[in-house]
Design a protein that fits this description.
By secondary structure, the protein is an alpha+beta fold. The chain has 2 domains: about 190 residues, no CATH class; about 240 residues, Beta-lactamase (3-Layer(aba) Sandwich), CATH 3.40.710.10. About 40% of the residues lie in helices and about 10% in strands. Strand 5 and strand 6 form a beta hairpin. Helix 2 packs parallel to helix 6, helix 8 crosses helix 11 and helix 10 crosses helix 11. The chain starts with a helix and ends in a 9-residue tail after the last helix.
Length: about 450
């Protein structure tokens, strides 16, 4: 595509030819792959991104404030259109796959409140089975709108890097579909950018519908921010409450309110990795400087300060933990938020998050969520159980998507059946994000 052709995709008064610090004007090499930075800049130009609405400096070590496309990276990230590779690296020069480029464009359309005319049928390619489930909805919508068409070999090649020519063609068709007669400025809403994981939610609801007791599930893809919650209600947390006790202790250390002695450190380790109730009492007693009730008050104060409205810690020191565990409550989404923050190193602090994550990686109780994963899958989990309560919470690292999974269940008649069901739910979620790794039916 010529320079004029590239500019024509965007409005004339806002047209900027894509370029990165190491690449000349894009029209000179249109068959080369598009980078992540170029992708978000191209989409930003299509939607007349107001790059002044975001911070002037990038927050990643591999993106400098004076780079040409930094403003677009900040813009796309602030609207949850594109996500960094890690907490510290955006990877602006990595190539982007065709399905990921389409997904980002689709998020931008949703964020802008724009709907494509989908009079046609979604295209079925000979390699449709290679499309990741998270991109299914986006590809179906854009193909039904005539923006993505079948090639000569009837293949989409969703996982391959998208070329500049192919990306421009998609943007040009989107422009023709939306903007030929549209003059008003587009205002973005960052709450609408992430489409729901419909297929996974439907399958989990079908699975939970077979259960006669009370179940709740929360899933969040940590790569894209997509999330679903089923029955996100106030439930008995059992030992999942220890994640909040750990947060209280780690905050107290950083505030200088308690010393991180070898004894206290041992309590924290045993409370998380072994789910020891004795260590739990010991840590709360240390927080209260010899008074567990005061320690519990600090835990509840921490919970409230972090904005968790459905989580509460209630326990009289004179009673056995096992007899009053039902006094501790939370929701799958609030526990999920804790693990999301641990993963992104924002739970208390980066050091505190890493410490808690390592303790969860050393978890001894692995018969629930971890047991539903393929051998070798990295999983950090914290369980919770009482006589008729079976819960588990986990961060899972996988090729398809790093994700958080929280499962809570009440009124279980059989401990073994409930444990097996959590393992089964874990397999369903893993298969959704990694359809090529297992024989799961997606």
């Amino acid at each position: 595509m010529s320079a004029d052709g590239a500019a024509a995709i965007f409005r004339a008064d806002n047209a900027v030819l894509l370029q990165s610090p190491d690449v000349s004007v894009i029209s000179e090499s249109v068959e080369t792959p598009v980078t992540r930075a170029e992708a978000i800049a191209a989409i930003g130009q299509l939607f007349h991104a107001d790059t002044n609405m975001t911070a002037a400096a990038a927050q990643w070590t591999d993106v400098s404030a004076d780079q040409d496309l930094t403003a677009y990276i900040n813009w796309g990230s602030s609207l949850h259109l594109i996500y960094p590779r890690t907490d510290t690296e955006f990877a602006p020069n990595d190539t982007i796959s065709k399905e990921d480029f389409i997904m980002i464009l689709y998020r931008a359309l949703n964020s802008a409140g724009l709907e494509l005319q989908t009079d046609g049928q979604a295209v079925t390619w000979s390699d449709s089975q290679m499309i990741s489930d998270y991109a299914d909805e986006a590809i179906d919508t854009l193909s039904a709108a005539g923006i993505i068409e079948t090639g000569e070999d009837d293949m989409l090649r969703p996982g391959e890097p998208i070329t500049q020519a192919s990306a421009y063609q998609i943007l040009e068709k989107t422009y023709q579909s939306l903007y030929e007669d549209l003059q008003e400025e587009v205002v973005f809403d960052d709450t609408a950018a992430i489409p729901e994981m419909t297929k996974l939610k439907e399958k989990l609801e079908q699975e939970l519908g077979r259960q006669s007791n009370n179940w709740a599930v929360y899933v969040k893809c940590l790569d894209t921010g997509q999330e679903i919650a089923i029955n996100d209600s106030h439930m008995c947390s059992a030992s999942l409450i220890k994640l909040f006790v750990a947060g209280t202790y780690l905050r107290a250390i950083e505030d200088g309110a308690v010393e991180d002695t070898s004894s206290n450190s041992g309590y924290l380790s045993s409370m998380i990795s072994r789910s020891s109730n004795t260590a739990w009492i010991g840590l709360e007693t240390a927080l209260g400087h010899g008074n567990q009730d005061k320690g519990i008050d600090l835990v509840n104060a921490f919970i409230q300060s972090e904005g968790y409205k459905q989580t509460e810690r209630k326990l009289a020191v004179s009673k056995a933990v096992s007899s009053v565990g039902y006094s501790n409550f939370s929701t799958v989404s609030e526990v999920g938020d804790v693990l999301d923050r641990v993963y992104h190193r924002t739970y208390v602090s980066a050091d505190a998050s890493e410490r808690l994550e390592n303790l969860m990686l050393n978890q001894e109780h692995r018969q629930k969520i971890p047991s539903g994963l393929p051998y070798g899958t990295v999983c950090a989990n914290k369980t919770g159980e009482l006589s008729d309560i079976q819960n588990d919470s986990a961060i899972v690292w996988s090729d398809g998507c790093d994700y958080v999974l929280i499962v809570m269940s009440e009124e279980n008649r059989s401990e073994g059946s409930a444990v097996r069901e959590i393992s089964n739910i874990s397999s369903i979620v893993y298969d959704y994000f990694n359809p090529g790794d297992t024989s799961g039916d997606w």
